[in-house]
């Protein structure tokens, strides 16, 4: 299709604009390949920014658009800033507020309070971010686990009617104060102690508040003990959304464990069926094969953690209980591929970088006993190497409801531990799946990181490149974009993000951090940042 009239009209408009004394824009990003976040073919265009908004997209020369400052984006991709749908950013801490591992991947918004952990004191959280300044935009859910812990501690029982009312009230408080929905971590303690019905009751509160999201680290991604069932777990989460009236998003959706290698299509089919029924169900992913969590979560059955740490240690000290426990731990380790797949990422030098199998061998004890000894000193951060099947992960990347997340927790400077995903989840997906393996298109991958997420979160002024929206922009070099963090050396920023703008300000310029703290705490609804 061609627009002959436009060709005549455009110079005329430019003249008119100049005649009307049109102000120059603040910034003109010239000649980039523009992906608008919707997944369509990119177009070559100039993008202008004025204040914190996108003020022009088109042919600047033809339309007589001028700017105080111009950057050349020839050969570069210009995209909406990336949205990390499931992060453990420590952005509230002074050392993490700049959010550099995220910015260097092109991420301009992080979704926090995930896995059931979000505090109901959302107003305090938002005020804290505002007071300290933050490098990327951030939003939070209120967490089922956090609320349950406040009311029931780590007790393995159902709440009384009065306790459930208190939990409802805490969820409502979080939503009133600006949470985007309810998150859960039904795999974890104390979320694991909740019945489906309990979560439905709390999700009903979330359903009253836009964008009505239920975000879940569901009960059994495939490696839970005792097994709840990989597919039963997906069905449970969908049921929670369907009966309560929320949308559902599966955090880091995948099929864990060797028994579930190749089974991602079965889980994806359940999501597709629910979508056909009219339930809004989606997922987010990263493309690493290792997970990260705690040694307790991976090796102690939930019954043995009930009542908290002291109660757990008493069980460790009782020889009969310890024997039963060790059998369970051995089974849990087998599901995870063995003790040599459990790798410590922990500041304790005698643990860091080693596997549970190594440590057990050095101590001359079976792996379950070594795990108990370590836990008696304190919980440890571990990765489970090879828990995800690359074939599953690749299949899931192709689903049109699949978003992207880091699941990443910042690594404190000087600490040689952590999972590389916090530094490279987005850039690795682009490098591996788009550029090297050509599994998905650049436009499709960018959509999974931008527009798809913004629509789900109902962020009306972010996630797309359109005039009038907030100027969160990621400008990357497709030749150079890549992750550099590894399991051995996680502490490396990604490469190839040339410029990153957050709310119209350069956070990264020519590949270097500017020191800007231009992020905002986001609240749901239209004009999210203006209230
Ligand atoms: Zn999780």
Topology (elements, then pairings):
Blueprint: H1 4-19, E1 25-34, E2 43-50, E3 53-58, H2 60-63, E4 67-72, E5 77-80, E6 82-84, H3 100-103, E7 107-112, H4 122-132, E8 137-140, E9 142-143, H5 144-152, H6 161-176, E10 181-185, H7 196-206, E11 213-217, H8 230-244, E12 247-250, H9 264-277, E13 281-285, E14 291-294, H10 295-299, H11 302-305, H12 309-317, H13 319-335, E15 342-344, H14 356-363, H15 367-377, E16 381-384, H16 390-397, E17 402-404, H17 421-436, H18 442-449, H19 451-457, E18 473-476, E19 497-502, E20 505-509, E21 512-513
Parallel strand pairs: 1-4, 1-5, 6-7, 7-8, 9-10, 10-11, 11-12, 12-13, 13-17
Antiparallel strand pairs: 1-2, 2-3, 5-18, 14-16, 15-16, 18-19, 19-20, 20-21
- Quaternary structure type: single chain
Distance between the termini: 42 Å
Q: Main β-sheet: number of strands, strand sense, barrel status?
A: 9 strands, mixed
In terms of DSSP E residues, the strand content is 15-25%
Please identify the structural class as seen in this structure. Answer: alpha/beta
pLDDT < 50 stretches:
1-21
> Helicity, in percent?
25-40%
- Characterize the overall form: globular
Q: What is the tally of beta strands? A: 21
Q: Treating each run of at least 4 consecutive H or I residues as one helix, how many helices?
A: 19
**Overall residue-averaged pLDDT value:** 94
Instruction: List bound small molecules.
Output: zinc ion
Radius of gyration, CA atoms, in whole angstroms: 24 Å
């Amino acid at each position: 299709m061609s627009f002959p009239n436009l060709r005549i009209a455009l110079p005329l408009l430019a003249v008119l604009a100049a005649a009307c004394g049109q102000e120059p824009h603040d910034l003109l990003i010239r000649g980039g390949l523009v992906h608008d976040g919707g997944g369509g073919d990119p177009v070559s265009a100039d993008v202008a920014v004025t204040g914190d908004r996108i003020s022009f997209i088109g042919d600047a020369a033809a339309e007589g658009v001028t700017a105080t400052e111009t950057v050349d984006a020839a050969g570069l991709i210009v995209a909406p800033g990336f949205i990390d749908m499931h992060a453990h950013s420590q952005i509230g801490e002074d050392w993490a507020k700049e959010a550099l591992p995220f910015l260097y991947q092109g991420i301009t918004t992080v979704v926090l309070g995930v896995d059931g952990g979000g505090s109901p004191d959302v107003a305090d959280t938002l005020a804290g971010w505002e007071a300290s300044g933050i490098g990327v935009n951030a939003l939070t859910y209120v967490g089922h686990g956090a609320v349950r812990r406040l009311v029931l501690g780590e007790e393995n029982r159902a709440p009384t009617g009065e306790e459930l009312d208190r939990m409802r009230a805490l969820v409502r408080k979080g939503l009133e104060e600006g949470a985007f929905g309810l998150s859960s971590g039904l795999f974890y303690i104390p979320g694991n102690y909740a019945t489906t019905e309990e979560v439905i009751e709390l999700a009903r509160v979330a359903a009253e508040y836009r964008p009505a999201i239920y975000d879940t680290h569901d009960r059994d991604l495939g490696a839970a003990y005792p097994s709840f069932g990989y597919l039963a777990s997906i069905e449970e989460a969908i049921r929670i959304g369907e009966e309560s009236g929320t949308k559902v998003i599966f955090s880091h959706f995948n099929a864990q464990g060797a028994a579930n290698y190749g089974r991602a299509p079965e889980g994806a089919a359940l999501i597709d069926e629910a979508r056909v029924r009219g339930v809004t169900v989606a997922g987010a992913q990263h493309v690493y094969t290792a997970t990260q969590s705690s040694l307790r979560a991976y090796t102690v059955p939930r019954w043995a953690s009930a009542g908290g740490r002291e109660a757990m240690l008493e069980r460790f000290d009782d020889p009969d209980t310890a024997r039963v426990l060790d059998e369970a731990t051995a089974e849990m380790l087998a599901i995870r591929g063995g003790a040599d797949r459990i790798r410590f990422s922990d500041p304790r030098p005698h643990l860091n970088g080693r596997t549970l199998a190594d440590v057990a061998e050095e101590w001359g004890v079976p792996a379950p006993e070594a795990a108990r000894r370590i836990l008696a000193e304190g919980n440890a951060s571990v990765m489970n190497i090879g828990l995800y099947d690359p074939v599953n992960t690749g299949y899931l990347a192709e689903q049109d409801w699949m978003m992207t997340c880091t699941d990443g927790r910042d690594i404190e400077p000087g600490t040689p531990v952590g999972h590389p995903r916090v530094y490279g989840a987005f850039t690795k997906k682009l490098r591996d799946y788009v550029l090297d393996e050509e599994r998905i298109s650049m436009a499709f991958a960018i959509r999974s990181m931008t527009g798809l997420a913004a629509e789900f979160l109902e962020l009306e002024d972010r996630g797309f490149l359109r005039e009038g929206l907030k100027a969160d922009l990621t400008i990357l070099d497709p030749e150079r974009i890549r992750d550099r963090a590894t399991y051995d050396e996680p502490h490396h920023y990604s490469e190839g993000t040339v410029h990153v703008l957050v709310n119209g300000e350069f956070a990264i310029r020519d590949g270097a951090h500017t020191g800007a703290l231009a992020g905002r705490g986001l609240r749901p609804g239209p004009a999210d940042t203006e209230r």
